[in-house]
Every structure is written in structure tokens, then in C-alpha cells.
Amino acid sequence: MTAIRTVLGDLDPAELGVCDAHDHLFLRSPLLPGQELDDVAAAAAELVAFRAAGGQAVVQWTPYGMGRRAAELPRLARSSGLHLVAATGLHRAAHYDRLPGLDSLAELFITELTVGIGGDGPRAGLIKVAGGFHGLDEHARRTMTAAAAAHHATGAPIGVHHEVGTAATEVLDLLCGQLEVPPGSVLLGHLNRFPDERIHLELARSGAYLAFDGPSRANAATDWRLLDVLVALAEAGHGEQLLLGGDTVTAAARSSADGPGMPFLLTNLRPRIAAALGEETADLILRHNPARAFAADWKPVH
Known about the structure:
Elements: E1 2-6, E2 9-11, E3 19-23, H1 40-52, E4 57-60, H2 73-80, E5 83-85, E6 87-89, H3 105-114, E7 126-130, H4 138-154, E8 158-161, H5 168-178, E9 186-188, H6 197-205, E10 209-213, H7 223-238, E11 242-245, H8 264-277, H9 279-293, E12 296-297
Parallel strand pairs: 3-4, 4-5, 6-7, 7-8, 8-9, 9-10, 10-11
Antiparallel strand pairs: 1-2, 1-12
Helix pairs in contact: 3-4, 6-7, 7-8, 8-9
């Protein structure tokens, strides 16, 4: 059965609704000291604000070992009335003081997708991996190899962090070329951080989903180029592959701290997209595309 795996169970994709396709409720990294997202009340308030703006679903891309607080997610889903999707997977090595054994990564990912995070928590519905800056190191290759094995075993989609938006072509060559993951199961993240229209069109022709996220990082070529990038891709016939996310990674970026936060997608970006491309395309990007991108034909694992 085709479904989106949320923290409260499998969901008919038609019920997902307006979706923040890439964000973080909880996150901890040695690269962001003192900026942890670790406050349950603040996470709950952000979800309330997003729902008040018209949001109905949030996909948390925080992977293994980065303070994702998976046990809190079902309660937050129930209290907010939003559909929440959790992630398994592994980020770049620099985000960890201690890494799990790389030889057992596929088994770890499969367990978190099918049994539950931590063995008794909610099941993940996404595998998060990461490339490097303009290339893939050995850690990235081994992590993506494990992610591909987990995809083939379960059907789960794979979301990719691209460092400053780079190395997406190399990721596709590895995941879809060598490791035979269908492009429609791959979500390429942070492409707004490297706003090269020619590369975006090349990536779109692969059939993968293209995620543009991070209005909390206005210094990273996000907002002021984002609309032009989306218009170019939609007008080239790739509107059905576009995704939007907030990618809130610090407490200061939350709406409750006067940052853009999750509601920004709907209060600021959506009206601009609708004005440029029409209400139908805005709804396509925020509602219908996530419903397809995060859906999988989940396979039983014995």
C-alpha cells in the first residue's frame, strides 16, 4: 500500500495537506554550539504557529544522533493536529562527536523505518543523508550506500543535504546510477544555496525532487533568488518536482524568537509564488508534490 509513514502511523498521501517539506523541531550539533533546538514547548509553539498559518504537515529531517527527540514527536503531532514525519539516516561526519559503526548503518536505518527509532519509538518515514562541498567523501559514499540498501529493503524515500547546494550531480550519479535508487525516491535538498539555473534544469531532468529550503538563512542566496529559480523550473515543465521547506536550524530562527520560522513558508513565500505562477502551482508545490515525494510502497521486512 502506498503511504506516508508519519510518527502516528501510515497515512494516505491524499490526507497530508499543506506541508513544510524540510524542517527541524529538534537538532543538536557540535557545529552549532549554544544554538540547539531542544525545547519541547518552543517546538510545540512553532507547530501551533504553522497550523494557524494554514499548515497541516511537517517533515523533520533531523537524522540519527543529532538530538531528534523522536519520543516527543507523537505527542507533538497529537497536540498540534499536524502530521509529522521523522527521519533516520546520518549527516556529515562533522556533525558528530561519535559516529555509529558504518558497517551496520543499513541495518540501523531499516530498523528505524520498520520497527521504530530506538527500538520502541515512532517509525521514521525518511532516510536523510548528506553530500560534501562540491564532492563526496568516503563517509558520504558509505552512508549513501547504506541508505540505498535501506531504500531497496523498505521503499523509503531518501532526502539529501547538499553542502551549500553543491555536489547534487555526484549524488545522483551514485544513488540513482550506481546504487539503482529510482530518481522519484530521491529528494535533493538546499538547492537554493547554489542557484545555478542550468544545473537545476539538469537535475530536474533526472526525475528527482528538488527541495528549496532555508528562509532562515537569508545570507545563503535563498529568498532573493528563490522566486526566479522556482519560476524558471516551473516554466520549463518541472513544477511537479518542486518542494519547499523552512529548514529552521537554530532557536533564533523560530517565529517565536522573531525569526521567519515555519509560518514564513505560508505567510510570505506562498503569496509570492501564487502571484508569479498562480494559485494552482502554489498548491502543487506545497500540497500535492510532498504527498507524492514522501509516499512509498512500503515493503514488509522480515
